[in-house]
């Protein structure tokens, strides 16, 4: 099996080392693991691509490359430059330091890398490690992902749904903020929503007198609705959420059509 891996925390991130170990086990002794990851951290860039400027790419070691771009850029670089058209069998993105559950899905570069792979017609999984007080006390805060990641990916490959539609399925996996031994199991869960948790800005004045704005986030341990991704994670479960890049609100199409297409001229 040939696997392409990327992330949004950067080529030197500890979560990428965890993902490399997972990918190597999944690929097997006769497989190939190729890494194309951002040269610098790209957290929060979502599905951004560097459409208006070129990016530098550098070979760091055999099958290991760093690109000055987003995770989606890295997937494109892997497919059309590094691998020279030899398509991988699977794309893995992560393991992110911090959760990509609930509304974080929309901002996540980790998810963006997996989304680009899915748009390119490839099976893809994003993996993230929820952080919290319990993981802060661990020698390895990625312990949960390291111990359980191989089985989750393998189970998805063998038992997951892998369609070939225009907007094909890909998967978002979040490991709970607990020690590996305390994981209660796995839950297939929809994307949740943290109420009253929003991104904002905090202004600061530099020594030169100029104003700069820092993006601020909200509390990450606010529970989402029962049965959704972040709620499952905070209860000690690994969450698996099937996603598509299609953002159409299909549930309101018929109602909107009846309201607008039959409206008087």
UniProtKB/TrEMBL annotation:
One Pfam entry name: SurE
Domain annotation Survival protein SurE-like phosphatase/nucleotidase: ranges: 3-195
Family to which the UniProt record says this protein belongs: Belongs to the SurE nucleotidase family.
Top-tier EC class: hydrolase
Main subcellular location: cytoplasm
Record bears the keyword ATP-binding: no
Cofactor(s) this protein requires: a divalent metal cation
Signal sequence interval, chain numbering: none
UniProt keyword S-adenosyl-L-methionine, yes or no: no
Origin species: Plastorhodobacter daqingensis
Record-annotated membrane-spanning stretches: none
InterPro entries (alphabetical): SurE, SurE-like_Pase/nucleotidase, SurE-like_sf
Protein name per Swiss-Prot or TrEMBL: 5'-nucleotidase SurE
Top-level taxonomic group: Bacteria
Reaction equations catalysed: a ribonucleoside 5'-phosphate + H2O = a ribonucleoside + phosphate
């Amino acid at each position: 099996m040939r696997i392409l891996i990327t992330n949004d925390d950067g080529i030197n991130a500890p979560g990428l080392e965890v993902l490399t170990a997972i990918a190597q086990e999944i690929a097997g002794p006769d497989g190939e693991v190729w890494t194309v990851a951002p040269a610098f951290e790209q957290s929060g860039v979502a599905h951004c691509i560097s459409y208006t400027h070129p990016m530098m790419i550098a070979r760091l070691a055999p099958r290991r490359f760093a690109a000055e771009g987003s995770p989606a850029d890295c997937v494109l670089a892997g497919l059309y430059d590094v691998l020279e058209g030899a398509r991988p069998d699977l794309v893995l993105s992560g393991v992110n330091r911090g959760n990509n559950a609930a509304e974080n899905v929309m901002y996540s570069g980790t998810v963006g890398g997996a989304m680009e792979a899915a748009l390119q017609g490839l099976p893809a999984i994003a993996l993230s490690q929820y952080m919290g007080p319990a993981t802060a006390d661990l020698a390895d805060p990625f312990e949960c992902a390291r111990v359980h990641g191989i089985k989750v990916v393998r189970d998805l490959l063998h038992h997951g749904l892998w369609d070939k539609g225009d907007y094909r399925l890909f998967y978002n996996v979040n490991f709970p903020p607990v020690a590996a031994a305390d994981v209660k199991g796995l839950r297939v869960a929809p994307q949740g929503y943290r109420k009253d948790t929003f991104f904002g800005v905090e202004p600061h004045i530099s020594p030169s007198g100029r104003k700069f704005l820092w993006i601020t986030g909200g509390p990450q341990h606010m529970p989402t609705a029962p049965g959704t991704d972040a709620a499952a994670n905070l209860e000690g479960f690994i969450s698996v959420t099937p996603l598509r890049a299609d953002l159409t609100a299909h549930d309101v199409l018929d109602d909107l059509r009846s309201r607008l297409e039959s409206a008087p001229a």
